[in-house]
């Protein structure tokens, strides 16, 4: 039964699962059973979603007490510095699959162990996982929203400050990617240091600022020969791709579901890196030639970005994916990757940063500039994608039809000239008829041309749409880190925090800042190379195309020379 409630404090939503409420606002509560400190309901503006249980009182008309006050509950009360702990088996985010070959067991690699051993969740930062929350049936549209239990809810006033002492306040919004990714815990020093860290990723100062140290053993990897194969005596069909790393020169064969497994391990591990998105899945027509060719082209671009990234290319799970051919060794490496502890916030412990001083305000200004740039680039990439897609449609449909109409019209003229034989000139009639056939050929050339230029352009634009979509969440991590530094310095100035503790927060913020700047620099480096190649390829193919059209027309023109 729906219940009436009143908001005790203001709460501002930070994502689509939440709604904002204002002090003294009348609310409707769908159920008074809180979900780990959160209630589901509707505000006075008709918006439906979640808000902190401790921020409301439920109004009762017939009881000894006129309301239930959640603000006195030990977990999640304003001003109470409760803590939460992540699940020992953090979830993995998976791309939903419509493909039959992605839904079966990993029978060809590992019958006993699959990544489904870990609880699934919805994507968080950059697709990074977060533990799952089960909502009641009435809230079905959000059943897979990522969530951490025991949200920490604090009022930013003197009462809450006196209770938490020198501890920097945690974010009210436990859905925030800053929280879900574990970066907040890292900044506040709550991520335990490992006794032994086997992997390190170094950041150096380059001519344009921080940059990832290059892979000491660079390589490339080809993606070739998509081949349809079957199993279970032909019941199951799938496409395998031949991968040949240049540093090994020994091919391995992988299905799309194997790429998907690797992609989710990358999202799970690399918190502050923009992992390139895999080509999209398709519900039907998976074995059609055009779809297979399109997926191969986009996997080639994906692989090119993976091998060129100084960090992703060195990831042990990626190397295992590219090199392992033995089934037993594959299972061991797969399980090792799934049990990797240096993931999410712990990955930040593996980063070594330069000693050079960077003013945090300068870093924030640079991040803001990149944020504005990436938003503008995202808009322009979408605009070019729409224009190019429309041009493909015209090439395949409109242009071909118009040239066919023109060709048919010329043919009709030629046929009409045959109607009065005494005055008919065969050479002219044949030339006009050939002109009509030439324009029909030109129409077919227009229909085929997108395969040579526009498809490749759209492949690159699709890749960058995915990369750019990652940055808002990654930038949000840096913004959250900046806010913690400012808060800790204010508390230190007020004597409520040791300067040493504030310095530790600033130091850890530098790690996040250097990593983001290194990722920004890598993005720009790849952007220049990729768009140069894309534009050169498009213009070259356009020149070749119009030269071929010109040759067809010139050949036809010569038929009129000796009339």
UniProtKB/TrEMBL annotation:
Residues 66-96 have a biased composition (Polar residues). GO terms for molecular function: phosphatidylinositol binding. One of its GO terms (cellular component) is cytoplasmic vesicle membrane. A 1,2-diacyl-sn-glycero-3-phospho-(1D-myo-inositol-4,5-bisphosphate) binds at residues 255, 257, 295. It is found in: Cytoplasmic vesicle membrane. The keyword Ion transport does not apply. It is a peripheral membrane protein. Keywords: Cell cycle, Cell division, Cytoplasmic vesicle, Endocytosis, Membrane, Mitosis, Protein transport, SH3 domain, Transport. PROSITE patterns: PX, SH3. CDD domains: BAR_SNX33 (cd07669), SH3_SNX33 (cd11896). Residues 66-110 are annotated as: Disordered. It comes from the Eukaryota. Residues 98-110 have a biased composition (Acidic residues). Residues 219-329 form the PX domain. Residues 1-61 form the SH3 domain. One of its GO terms (biological process) is intracellular protein transport. PANTHER family: SORTING NEXIN, SORTING NEXIN-33. Belongs to the sorting nexin family. This is SNX33 protein. It comes from Sapayoa aenigma (broad-billed sapayoa).
């Amino acid at each position: 039964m729906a219940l009436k409630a009143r908001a005790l404090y203001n709460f501002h939503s930070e994502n689509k699962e939440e709604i904002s409420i204002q002090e003294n606002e009348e609310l409707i509560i769908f159920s008074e059973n809180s979900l780990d400190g959160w209630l589901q309901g509707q505000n006075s503006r008709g918006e439906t979603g979640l808000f902190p249980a401790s921020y409301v009182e439920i109004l009762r008309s017939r009881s000894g007490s006129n309301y239930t006050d959640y603000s006195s509950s030990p977990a999640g009360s304003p001003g109470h510095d409760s803590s939460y702990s992540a699940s020992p088996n953090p979830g993995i985010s998976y791309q939903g699959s419509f493909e039959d070959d992605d839904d079966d067991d990993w029978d060809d690699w590992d019958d006993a162990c699959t990544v489904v051993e870990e609880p699934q969740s919805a994507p968080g930062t950059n697709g990074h996982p977060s533990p799952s929350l089960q909502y009641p049936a009435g809230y079905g549209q959000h059943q897979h929203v990522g969530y951490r239990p025991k949200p920490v809810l604090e009022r930013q006033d003197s009462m809450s400050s006196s209770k938490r002492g020198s501890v920097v306040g945690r974010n009210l919004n436990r859905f925030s990617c800053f929280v879900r990714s574990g970066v907040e815990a890292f900044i506040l020093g709550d991520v335990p240091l490992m006794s032994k860290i086997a992997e390190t990723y170094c950041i150096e100062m380059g001519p344009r600022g921080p940059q990832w140290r290059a892979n000491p053993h660079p390589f490339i990897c080809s993606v070739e020969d998509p081949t349809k194969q079957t199993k279970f005596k032909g019941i199951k069909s799938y496409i395998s791709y031949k991968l040949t790393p240049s540093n090994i020169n020994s091919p391995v064969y992988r299905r799309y579901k194997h790429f998907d497994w690797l992609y989710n391990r990358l999202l799970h591990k690399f918190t502050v890196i923009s992992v390139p998105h895999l080509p999209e899945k398709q519900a039907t027509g998976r074995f059609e030639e055009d779809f297979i060719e399109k997926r191969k082209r986009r996997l080639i671009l994906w692989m090119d970005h993976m091998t060129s990234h100084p960090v992703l290319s060195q990831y042990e799970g990626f190397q295992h994916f590219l090199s392992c051919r033995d089934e037993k060794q594959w299972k061991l490496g797969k399980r090792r990757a799934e049990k990797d502890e240096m993931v999410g916030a712990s990955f930040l412990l593996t980063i070594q940063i330069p000693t050079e001083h960077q003013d945090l305000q300068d870093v924030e200004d640079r991040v803001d500039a990149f944020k504005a740039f990436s938003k503008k680039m995202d808009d322009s990439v979408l605009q070019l994608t729409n224009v190019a897609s429309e041009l493909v449609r015209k090439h395949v449909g409109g242009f071909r039809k118009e040239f066919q109409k023109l060709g048919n019209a010329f043919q009709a003229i030629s046929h009409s000239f045959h109607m009065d034989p005494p005055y008919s000139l065969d050479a002219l009639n044949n030339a006009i008829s050939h002109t009509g056939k030439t324009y029909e050929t030109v129409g077919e050339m227009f229909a085929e041309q997108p395969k040579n230029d526009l498809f490749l352009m759209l492949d690159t634009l699709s890749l960058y749409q995915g990369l750019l979509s990652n940055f808002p969440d990654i930038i949000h991590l840096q913004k959250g880190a900046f806010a913690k530094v400012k808060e800790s310095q204010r508390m230190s100035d007020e004597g409520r925090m040791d300067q040493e503790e504030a310095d530790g927060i600033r130091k850890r913020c530098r790690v996040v800042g250097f990593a983001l700047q290194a990722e920004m620099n890598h993005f720009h480096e790849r952007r220049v190379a990729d768009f140069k190649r894309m534009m050169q390829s498009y213009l070259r193919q356009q020149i070749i195309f119009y030269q071929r059209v010109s040759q067809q027309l010139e050949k036809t023109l010569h038929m009129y020379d000796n009339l």
